[in-house]
Amino acid sequence: MQSFPAVDPIPLPAPIWLLKLLHIVTLSLHFVAVEMLLGGLLLAVLLSLFRSSPASLVTARAIARRLTVVMTYVINLGVPPLLFAQVLYGRALYTSSVLIGAYWISIIAILTLTYWLLYQFTARLESGRSAWWVGLSAWVLAGFIARLLSTNMTLMLRPEVWRQMYSSSAAGVYLPTGDPTLTPRWLLMLAGGFFIGGLWLVYLAGRSTFTADEKKFIAGLGGKVAVLFGVVYLAAGLWAVSVQPQAVKDGLASHPLYRFAGFAGYGWLALVILAVLIAAIAGFGKVAANGLAWAGALAALLIEITFTVYRDGVRDLTLLNKGFDVWNRTVVTNWSVVGLFLVLFVGGLGVIGWLISVVARAQKPMEGAAL
Ligand code: HEM
After folding, report:
1. What's the 3-state SS for the chain?
2. pTM
3. Distance, CA 145 to ligand 1 centroid (Å)?
């Protein structure tokens, strides 16, 4: 029986390697923003709940203010990989999206509510009102969106359950069950949130808008959180790989790129260990945080890139074992369109970089000034 819908007769308009490269670049950036949101938000909630010192409230407000901006990156950096994923894996991804259609479409409403709650959280913190329960609600919703995304990205790899799910309901009201890879994968993203969130604090501690005492507090807290959750993140990563089918594990271990990106070639593994060491120096050492800020940020970016490459390998190898070869497509490249796209893409990245540099250079009041 044919597991996957028939391939679209219209050829792909760009080389597959280029579509995959753009997919991985944009998705890695989406993941950096997602992890900052998931980890940063809960850290800000906890800091505002247990106001152990004036610095904890200053830190909570500093994170919250930035989270509304981070959310724009989560969304805008989520759209391109969604488009690339649909071009490359449409036969699998459209099917799974339709099968959980009611939940899939509800992401738009949940996302809107989460965004509104984020603004409420920030406003309440700024005005000194109780805010933790608003922030916590936003975090629960964001975690649920993450769960739905993990659900769809794993359901697209299981053509064997599609027919039975569709027979149960064509309205997309059921979520799939019985996939051992789903929960470890979701928890890996949540653990990564605290890890990257901790590294983000180490980075923030290098900003000149904090007093020396605040910097010390933020670097110490961020470093300790990143050390603890770096270890949890490593364990979750090992768990997520261990539940993959043997054929996928063998494929990951023997493919040169995935070997390098993941465990066997120590790409992701080495970077996580390096980032934990950076965090340990920031969290427990006496070294000023400024020098560590950029090292932690760079490590976080490289961790997400290697993670995304490896994750891509899990998908391609799983699908290949079920008869779907992502490389097996007719390509008729339209170079003028590809060229125009790349010019706009690079130009767009340049404009974002320029915007960030303008914001970074702008004169800002001290973070705790209004308290
Ligand atoms: C609060 C908002 C969001 C959160 C917390 C979030 C979280 C996540 C997580 C955890 C994953 C990984 C799932 C997995 O593979 O296990 C993911 C993947 C993804 N997200 Fe987001 N996301 C959010 C918003 C969005 C938005 C608004 C879009 C698009 C418009 C988007 C597009 C994607 C895509 C396309 C993937 C997977 C791509 C692929 O596998 O090829 N996300 N997201």
Report:
1. CCCCCCCCCCCECCCHHHHHHHHHHHHHHHHHHHHHHHHHHHHHHHHHHCCCCHHHHHHHHHHHHHHHHHHHHHHHCCHHHHHHHHHHHHHHHHHHHHHCHHHHHHHHHHHHHHHHHHHHHHHHHHCCCCCHHHHHHHHHHHHHHHHHHHHHHHHCCCHHHHHHHHHHCCCCCCCCCCCCCHHHHHHHHHHHHHHHHHHHHHHHCCCCCCCHHHHHHHHHHHHHHHHHHHHHHHHHHHHHHHCCCHHHHHHHHHCHHHHHHCCCCCHHHHHHHHHHHHHHHHHHCCCCCHHHHHHHHHHHHHHHHHHHHHHHHHHHHHHHHCCCCCCCCCECCCHHHHHHHHHHHHHHHHHHHHHHHHHHHCCCCCCCCCC
2. 0.95
3. 8
